[in-house]
């Protein structure tokens, strides 16, 4: 009986993460009965409790149910915070747009979460809550045996222009844009489509202004063309009003009337090796 229950759970969850809802469907039981059975399996050492109502199926060769956390935060996020996608600084790391390391995995979610900082199974997550229609990534990547939704390189930059905190602030966004522009190839058609569907007026101002400033310091022809494309494409999405270049900085700085921005931080590229 126990072996059958575990087999059904494993078949129902490729990631190895199970909840009472998954267990209920796998076992054909109501949610209350499934929760009680999950607790029993956890007490017997077959499941590792990640947080209330969420468990990991323990590998047969695991030495201890508490010795190590679940080792893939992306797979855990896909199960724990659905509907969601991995974005922000975590997506930037994945696409090679930054060398900066962040402890937390950044997740954009429509789940009913109470805090923006959550630890599950020893892994730290930074959450950005959005509406369900926005909690959809435009790329899918394999994480062992499952596919996880995330933002593409282009969408990551656009998201960060809308909300600079998602990437760690405007100064970090500048570095990400430089890295993107200097890549051997980019999908600028996709960039334009994603701008049309996801950029907000304030984000268009930030992104266009930054790209415009960077063009003047770029020596690589391909990178200059990419930055010039971004500058021109964002002009179609500008909105009225004046916003801060970096909303995380209290001071307003000086006004740039051409872009409708309070320029309150420097746009300065740093050389990459």
Written description of the protein model:
- The structure is a single chain.
- The chain is an alpha+beta fold and 273 residues long.
- The protein has 3 domains: 56 residues, Arc Repressor Mutant, subunit A, CATH 1.10.10; 83 residues, no CATH class; 107 residues, no CATH class.
- 40% of the residues lie in helices and 18% in strands.
- It contains 10 helices and 12 strands.
- A 4-stranded mixed sheet has the order 4-5-7-6. It has a 3-stranded antiparallel sheet with strand order 1-3-2, with helices on both faces.
- A hairpin with a 2-residue loop joins strand 2 and strand 3.
- Helix 6 packs antiparallel against helix 7 and helix 9 packs antiparallel against helix 10.
- The longest helix has 15 residues.
- The protein is elongated, with a radius of gyration of 22 Å.
- The protein starts with a helix and ends in a 10-residue tail after the last strand.
Q: Give the distance, in angstroms, between the N- and C-terminal Cα atoms.
A: 58 Å
The run of helices and strands is HEHHEEHEHEEEEEHHHHHEEE
In angstroms, what is the radius of gyration? 22 Å
Oligomer state of the chains in this structure? single chain
Unreliably modeled segments: 62-69
Features:
single chain, 273 residues, alpha+beta, Arc Repressor Mutant, subunit A, 3 domains, 4-stranded mixed beta sheet, 3-stranded antiparallel beta sheet, 10 helices, elongated
């Amino acid at each position: 009986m126990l072996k059958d229950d575990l087999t059904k759970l494993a078949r129902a969850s490729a990631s190895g993460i199970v909840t009472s809802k998954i267990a209920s469907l796998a076992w054909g039981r109501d949610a209350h009965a499934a929760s009680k059975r999950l607790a029993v399996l956890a007490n017997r050492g077959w499941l590792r409790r990640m947080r209330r109502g969420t468990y990991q199926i323990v590998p047969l060769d695991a030495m201890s149910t508490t010795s190590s956390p679940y080792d893939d935060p992306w797979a855990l996020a896909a199960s724990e915070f659905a509907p969601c996608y991995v974005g922000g600084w975590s997506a930037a790391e994945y696409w090679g747009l930054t060398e900066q390391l962040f402890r937390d995995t950044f997740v954009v979610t429509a789940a009913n979460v109470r805090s923006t900082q959550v630890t599950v199974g020893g892994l730290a997550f930074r959450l950005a809550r959005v509406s369900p229609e926005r909690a959809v990534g435009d790329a899918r990547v394999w994480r062992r045996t499952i596919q996880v939704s995330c933002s593409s390189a282009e969408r990551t930059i656009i998201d960060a222009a809308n909300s600079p905190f998602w990437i760690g602030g405007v100064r970090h966004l500048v570095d990400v844009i430089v890295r993107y522009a200097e890549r051997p190839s980019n999908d600028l058609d996709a960039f334009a489509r994603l701008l049309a569907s996801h950029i907000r007026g304030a984000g268009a101002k930030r992104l266009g202004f930054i790209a415009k400033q960077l063009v003047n310091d770029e020596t690589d022809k391909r990178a200059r063309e990419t930055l010039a494309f971004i500058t021109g494409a964002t002009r179609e999405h500008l909105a009225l009003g004046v916003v801060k270049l970096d909303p995380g900085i209290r001071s307003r700085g000086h006004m740039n009337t051409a872009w409708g921005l309070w320029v309150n931080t420097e746009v300065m590229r740093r050389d990459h090796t």
